[in-house]
Amino acid sequence: MEIPAGYGVVLATAANVQEAQAIANALVEAKLAACVSLLPIHSIYTWQGKIHTEDEWQLLIKADLAQFSTLEAKIRELHSYELSEIIALPIIAGSQPYLQWIAEQIKGDS
């Protein structure tokens, strides 16, 4: 098994499905993401000293982490939250054909 160089899953949440879709489309069109999966979630968190519970949309963004700063800037540009979740998890192993597909979707813009 080959360790992928620089690929990861970036997690971000959005307030509603329309915002999640707009962010996902922009990232894929800009070749900052090979794929973005959208999942409805229920979040419980502390914000400004209060506990909040919200229905949100989780974006699972498959990307080249070498482009993280550009990807983060694009998400922040389109996002409605004052402080948005944007965190990256490295892919430490993966199906070689899938990793090759990621590379083909985002090549040329790193």
Q: Can you offer a commentary on this structure?
A:
The chain has helices at 17-29, 68-78, 96-106; strands spanning 7-14, 35-47, 50-64, 86-90. By secondary structure, it is α+β, with helices and mostly antiparallel strands. It has a single domain, classed as Alpha-Beta Plaits (2-Layer Sandwich), CATH 3.30.70.120. Helix 1 runs antiparallel to helix 2. The radius of gyration is 15 Å and the shape is elongated. The relative contact order is 0.30. It comes from Calothrix parietina FACHB-288. Belongs to the CutA family. It holds the Pfam family CutA1. InterPro entries: Ion_tolerance_CutA (IPR004323), N-reg_PII-like_a/b (IPR011322), N-reg_PII/ATP_PRibTrfase_C (IPR015867).
Question: Main beta sheet, described?
Answer: 4 strands, antiparallel
As for the CATH topology, it is Alpha-Beta Plaits
Number of structural units classed as domains: 1
CATH class: Alpha Beta
The rounded distance between the terminal residues' Cα atoms is 25 Å
Number of strands: 4
Percent in helix:
25-40%
Strand order in space, largest sheet? 2-3-1-4
The second-level CATH architecture is 2-Layer Sandwich
Any idea what the shape is? elongated
Q: Based on helices, strands and strand pairing, what is the structural class?
A: alpha+beta
Estimated radius of gyration: 15 Å
Low-confidence parts, pLDDT < 50 over ≥5 residues?
none
Number of helices: 3
Family: Belongs to the CutA family.
InterPro entries: Ion_tolerance_CutA (IPR004323), N-reg_PII-like_a/b (IPR011322), N-reg_PII/ATP_PRibTrfase_C (IPR015867)
Pfam family, one: CutA1
Protein name: Divalent-cation tolerance protein CutA
